[in-house]
Structures are given as structure tokens and as C-alpha cells.
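Hello,

I think I submitted the iron/sulfur cluster job twice by accident. Can you confirm which output corresponds to this input? Input:
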Amino acid sequence: MDLATKAYLISVGTVELQDSAPQGAASTAGPSAGEGSVFFSSGERTVRLTLAPSPLKLLREGNEHVIVERGRVVARGHLVEPLLHCPGQAYITVSESCIYDCRFCAVPKLMGPTKSKERVIEMVRRAAMTGRLKAISLTSGVEISPEHEVERIADIAQALRTFGVPIGISVCPTERSNEILRSAGAIEVKYNLETLDPDIFQTVCPGLSFEGIKISLADAVGVFGRNSVFTNVIVGLGESDRVLLQGIDELTEMGVMPVLRAVYPHPLRLADLEMRRPSPGRILRLAEHLRRALDRNCLRGDAPQTMCYPCTGCDLIPHRDL
Ligand code: SF4
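Support: Only one job matched these inputs. Its output is below.
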């Protein structure tokens, strides 16, 4: 799968299983919560596609899987079995509910359960038994308050240190989240800005503070170091390329590594917001800009050990895909 093909597959974002293809696993994390997906790997690249009605069809051909569109083979490869949510990682959503109501996110609509510490430990123990566990990533909605959530996740992370693999954490930041999560053993953090346009942020993330998250990200670089602090940036919420390019420059100058994520228009959110999946050309241009920005600031996309940079399923990752 060449770079342009991966950009195209990300742009479509979905695939439909034909008869003999296996079932995918359902995600409990983030905007696409509740949807099944598959990881398709071809050559050096991997892409995650949501199982949904799609112009792309996934079929088995001998030992291979092929993605076909209107009779034309788009890519040949094989499916990769996720460990927990993604390949090689136990990526676990602890609280599947949220007091906030970010307009693109399915979690507040689904209001799922909160996993106990014992349940998370058991999930990781089972993942470790496969011999494929390379990292633990924890994420969480906000069940009661951001402070309460950080304490809960820190307590769980502390208990997971015994597995001896890197731990990354993505939560809503608080004044003390950096020191609390670092003391608990996390080596990487992700605090999601979601959009780089402050005006759009106000509309899509009511109740959250754009500036507050940026301050936490800047502090996090001081606590966790370079190549260790990330923020999800959704592409397709109506933001301009100019705002995105400037924002990418600003974040990377701070030492923060953006994860450029094509918006997923979840069926539960279609009435709340206009969301447009970016074109392959836009995905490529933004990823190339991000790669140059990382290079200028001596940041490496192949250095992170947890969460989305090593996974590469949903995005074009500099220094891994391009
Ligand atoms: S890139 Fe991130 S969100 Fe996407 S599948 Fe991988 S770990 Fe999950």
C-alpha cells in the first residue's frame, strides 16, 4: 500500500465485509465508540477501517485480503488482529461515559459503564498472556470530574506498572494531572485539543477550555519530555487549512505532537454537527506539513511508544508512513 492509497483509504474510512472476511472488534473509545473496525496491513503500512456500508469491499483471496472498489483492487494485504483496541497494545477506555458533550463524540450518547481497577488489570493480564503486549494505553471519558478521573486513572496506572511495558494516558487535563500521571508511572500523555480553531472549539467542546488544555500540553513537555506529549486534532469540523497549518507549527514549536485525525461522522452525531471527511489530497498535504514541522523542531514520529503514533491505524504518521 503506497502513501497515496493509505490516504485514500483513510479518506473513505469505512469498508464492508464480504462473505468470508472475519468480524471486526468494536471500539469503546472516542468519537467512533460502538463501531466495529478492522486493521488492514499491506507492506509497511497499516490502516484501520470502520465496518459500515462503504464503496470499499473487503474480501479474502487465498491467504490474502483485498480491498476492492467497483471491481478494481485498491490494496492487497492481510488483516492484523488487534490486541485490545489496536495491534500490540492494551488500549483501554476506563470510563465509557462523559459529563461533557463534545458534539462529534459518541461517548456521551452511549453512556457506557466504568471499568473497575480489577477489571482493567484482568484485561491487561489476558493481553500479556498472548506475548504480544508492547504497551498499555489508557483513555477515559469524564464520569464525575476531570480531577476525579485523573486520580482514578493514576491509581490504575500505578497498579499496571508491574507488567513492565510503557504506559501512555489520554485524559482531560487538570492543574495537577502532569505530576500525578508521571508519578503513577505514565511515560507519555495525550490531552486532546480536538480542533485548532478556537471559535470552532467553543461550539463543539462546550464547557472545556482551549487555553487551559494548551497550558497543560506545554507543561507536559516539561514533565514528560520531548516525543512524549500528544494532542488529537480532528480534521473536518469546518476549520481552514490556514488555521491548521499555523496550529501545527505552534504546537510542534512547543514540543507537542499533533495527531491529525479525519473526522468520523458517527451515526449518533449526524444531527449535531456538520462533519466532512477530508479528501486524500488534504490528508496528504497536512501530513507532509506535520512531518516538516516535526523535523524543524527535532521531534520524531517513530519515537513514541504508546497510543496512536506507534499504532498508525487511523492517520498518516510522519517518520512511519512518510
Ligand atoms: S491510531 Fe489511535 S485511535 Fe486509531 S486505532 Fe490506533 S490507537 Fe486507536
